[in-house]
Amino acid sequence: MNKINIVYVFGAALFLALLMFVQSSRTEHAVQNALKENAETARLGKQIRTAQQQWDDSKQIQRRIDAILMQGEFKSFVDRKNKNGRTYQVQFTPLPAQTFDRLTTKLFNTPVTISKMTVSRGSDQNVSLSVEFAL
Prior knowledge:
alpha+beta; 2 domains; five-stranded antiparallel β-sheet; 4 helices; 5 strands; about 60% helix
């Protein structure tokens, strides 16, 4: 019978241990990457849910619009408000240029969907405005 050299046995055991260590390390890195991606996906999902709640609530959108329109400097210029299904139309009396600028800045910086905006210049100092919001 042939004898098995002990060096070969230890070499094979060392090789298997090294192979298991490398595979374990790769698996650990894969799990860490998967956990990072899962956390990123959860964070992105929360952002999407928040954005959907912010943009899909028509009552909240109408409250935002009304809050802007009821501010002291704009309240006196609102001529007509009309809600038709999924649209909310607002007609303004001629606005001074500075008031028009402040109003449009507030409207553009508020999370609402403006589906139509009509601007016409009445004179050098006054601007007529009609805005249609999507609810």
